[in-house]
Amino acid sequence: MVKAVVGANWGDEGKGKITDMLAREADIIVRFQGGANAGHTIINNYGKFALHTLPSGVFYDHTTSIIGNGVALDVPVLFKEVQSIVDRGVPQPKILVSDRAQMVMSYHKNIDAYEEERLGGKSFGSTKSGIAPFYSDKFAKIGFQVSELFDDALLKEKVVRIAEQKNVLLEHLYHKPLIKPEELFEELMEYKKMVEPFVCDTALYLHNAVKEGKNILLEGQLGTLKDPDHGIYPMVTSSSTLAGYGAIGAGIPPYEIQKVITVCKAYSSAVGAGAFVSEIFGEEADELRKRGGDGGEFGATTGRPRRMGWFDCVASKYGCRLQGATDVAFTVLDVLGYLDEIPVCTGYEIGGEVTKEFPATHLLEKAKPVLKRLPGWKCDIRGIKNYEELPENCRNYIEFIEGEIGYPITMVSNGPGREDIIYR
Ligand code: GDP
Question: How far, in Å, from the CA of 173 to the mean position of ligand 1?
Fold first, then answer.
């Protein structure tokens, strides 16, 4: 059985916690897209971890963690991350890296930073992890695939060609130091040394695992609204965040993905620029940010304060629809226990008309939130295990949202730990 765990919104919905939790029953966990630009925060019996590249299932000794072909593989970051968890007592994880994954090179990270600098106030708010230059190069067919590390002749020719092309930009657009082909070759050899023991035809490995009936989790990064096609383009990420892409980024048939667990947070947060209709500001936002997540809503990679907002039914319904949600995991609900009333965005007013369908970006910029206020429950719901034991107003909040989005909320997360979960 293959399940995908993906985000319905702007990311940071708590996918890491849900994956870590579901990984207990899984054999294999696969990252299928994205890179080290976003983080998952996981709290378990080993402590609190911020993972960027490793799948969130690495904490069990019975799981295999796969870096799929769709990932932007930052080799040194991957190995630093493995070391950092092993140093804290986690058993040495079993890792396989796709021979078809491509690698983030140091020039991708440099160019990412130079471009943000060049754009100044008009920047995209990139984390400067090289993701956009990496995926641009992949699709321009000038990326470095892991399999190529084992072909010296090819690499020696390719580093010259790549340096020649990148140096035009570096010299004339950015006015920065140039790439030396021999240094690029050395960088690749360093990566080869690190990655060699783990390289595998992971699509074949997964094909066999599916045939054997293994439990496989595909772990998405970010959420629907950051998808390059279906998100808030151009304020999106550079690889597809949708469960459908899990098939491609892992190399398995689309019909094998039987469950799409779509994670929705009980309020909204976003990082980076772009339209965010239910956004709140000032003290109201500061209070929610301070109480949010586990220890506040600040980026797991950058430490940047996240933008905050009320739950957005329009965006979440859309987010679940594009993911093809079979189950919704509704997270971080415990955080809302301090509010007398909880506003929920139920529609967008655009040019005098109210819609419940999420529009394309140019209309989104004009949308104003239509808010409905639901009564709060004013207590701490952590520790509750049964749905019926939740306060009535809390159940009403869940059921109202479920009705608006039209997808079944089958899990409610009421704390950051593995066991803080209520199944419905
Ligand atoms: P991801 O990128 O989707 O994995 O999300 P992040 O890890 O960036 O953000 C989720 C944050 O919320 C983390 O700090 C989690 O520990 C925390 N978290 C997850 N689920 C819950 C929950 O139900 N309640 C609380 N209070 N925190 C949660």
Answer: 40
